[in-house]
Structure formats: structure tokens, C-alpha cells
Design brief:
Jelly Rolls, 5-stranded antiparallel β-sheet, about 25% strand, 9 helices, Arc Repressor Mutant, subunit A, 4-stranded antiparallel β-sheet, single chain, alpha+beta, 12 strands
């Protein structure tokens, strides 16, 4: 099995959502049931004992404090029965947004200035098992209550768990890259009307331009200048729909110095000229 960690990536919004959870105990000789195409993600968290489980051609022996997320579209099965009493929490969740499973950060899904990507490890030994135990306990308690508030409580607890998994697996270097990319994105969005250069961005963040570009490409899948262009074009779309300003003013308000240049880039990225875009969506 590869040493590169398997990651599950979810584009958001919309956020993944909680369906149900429970705590189960397997006695010696008992095993996890075999299932094919369950239709939901199955998150397992081990309290004590060992669970031997597989998914397609991958197999794990999960011990206390370990978590595993099984896919909704694969076959998972018991590798062998438990040798001792095993206690685990399970949680079913789903998403309606694009998702993928990849080795490391090799996937195609990236966030942008509107969307975010949630990346969680498929399998991990957690350094904070007590916190996860508390979340599962709260989920199980809320499930016994059918009130309106309990629905929101369960969704909230689940998203907290997802956030912990998203933030907990990264190395210090990877966390730094995310922080740099987010700082750069915030600066670009704040100053998109200005002629922002890579040098200006570098001076504002007090970081080398190449390092900023590498971080942004890793997190957003684009360079700072590409991010700036996409953001400007999206702002232009909003102004075309919400105002009756002439095209020249919209170009100026969104950081483009020449109207023909703006119109050409807009058409390249949307397939429509600014005027046709406005007419199509405003009647």
C-alpha cells in the first residue's frame, strides 16, 4: 500500500450533511457486515478493540483512536472476525456536491473565491480521540430527541467533526501554504480594482512572489494573477446584472483599464460578450 495518504475532497458549498449515527459493540467472533454501494459515506471511529475491514483491494486493522471513511460507491467487507470485544461509533453522511478520493493533493477539485474544498483523510490515527468521542456522544444523545433543535445540533456537531478532520491531518508546511494562499486571496479581493502586480502582492505579504504563487496554485489551482482575473470577471457579471452602467464603466469598476481588453477576456471566459451576457440574463 502506498505511503501517500488517501484524501477525500468535497467541494463546498453545499456542505456535506449528517444522516445518522450509532455506537455498536462486536463480541469475539463477530464482524462488520459486508456491503456494496451503500449510497452514503460510512465514517468509523474505534473506541476499543480492533476492527479488520476492507474496501475493494485495501484492508485495515483499526485500533482505538483510528478513523476510517468508507465510500458510498464501493464494496466493503470484513477481513476477519474480531478477536476481542470491539466498540466503535459509525456515522453516515452524504454530499450533493462534487467529491473525489485521491492520493495526497493530486486531485482535480480546487476551491476558488466562492467555493472551498474540504479535505479529510480516508484513514487516520487521531491525536485528539477524546474530542471525537465527545462529539459522537453528543450526536447519539441528540438522536434520541426528535425536536427541531436536535436536527440542527446534529448537523452542527457533524460539521465540527469534519472541520477537525480537515484541519488535523496537514503538516505544518501544508498549513502554512493554506494560510499564505488565504492571505493572498484576501488581499486580491480587497484590491481588485487596483492594478495589482505580483510585486505589490509580494510586498504586501512580505513573502517571495514565487512562494505565494506556489501556495495559491496548491490551494486554489491557479496563480495570483489568474485568481485576480477570475474574481474581476465575476464582479463584472454581478454589475452587468445588477446595474445599467455602460460596459466602459463596468470595466473600470472591476480593475480593467481598457474596455476592449475587458470585453475580449469576458467573452473568452463566458462565451458571450458583456452586452449579450446582460441581455441574456436580464431580458
Amino acid at each position: 500500500m502506498s505511503d501517500i495518504p488517501l484524501l477525500l475532497t468535497f467541494r463546498s458549498p453545499p456542505l456535506p450533511f449528517f444522516i445518522e449515527s450509532n455506537r455498536v459493540t462486536y463480541q469475539p467472533g463477530e464482524a462488520h457486515p459486508n456491503r456494496t454501494n451503500l449510497g452514503v459515506f460510512d465514517l468509523l471511529f474505534i473506541h476499543r478493540g480492533t476492527l479488520h475491514i476492507g474496501e475493494e483491494d485495501r484492508q485495515w486493522s483499526l485500533g482505538p483512536g483510528e478513523v476510517l471513511i468508507l465510500r458510498p460507491d464501493r464494496w466493503h467487507y470484513a477481513v476477519r472476525p474480531c478477536e476481542e470485544e470491539m466498540v466503535m461509533d459509525w456515522l453516515h453522511f452524504q454530499t450533493t456536491a462534487p467529491w473525489e478520493e485521491t492520493e495526497g493533493g493530486s486531485g482535480s477539485l480546487r476551491g476558488d473565491h466562492y467555493t472551498h474544498v474540504i479535505r479529510v483523510p480516508k484513514h487516520a490515527k487521531l491525536s485528539y480521540p477524546e474530542q471525537v468521542q465527545d462529539i459522537f456522544t453528543s450526536l447519539h444523545e441528540a438522536a434520541r430527541n426528535s425536536t427541531h433543535a436536535s436536527f440542527w445540533e446534529r448537523q452542527h456537531r457533524f460539521l465540527h467533526l469534519l472541520q477537525m478532520l480537515d484541519e488535523g491531518w496537514r503538516s505544518d508546511e501544508a498549513k502554512a501554504a493554506v494560510a499564505v494562499a488565504e492571505r493572498a486571496a484576501a488581499y486580491l479581493k480587497l484590491n481588485f480594482k487596483l492594478p495589482v502586480s505580483n510585486r505589490m502582492l509580494s510586498e504586501a505579504l512580505n513573502l517571495h512572489a514565487n512562494y505565494i504563487a506556489r501556495c495559491m496554485n496548491e490551494v486554489f489551482g491557479c496563480t495570483p494573477q489568474q485568481f485576480l482575473l477570475y474574481y474581476r470577471l465575476d464582479q463584472a457579471k454581478l454589475l452587468l446584472l445588477k446595474t445599467d452602467w455602460p460596459i466602459a464603466r463596468i470595466a473600470e469598476e472591476t480593475g480593467f483599464r481598457q474596455t476592449p481588453h475587458f470585453s475580449r477576456l469576458f467573452a473568452e471566459h463566458t462565451g458571450l460578450s458583456p452586452l449579450r451576457f446582460r441581455k441574456r440574463f436580464t431580458g
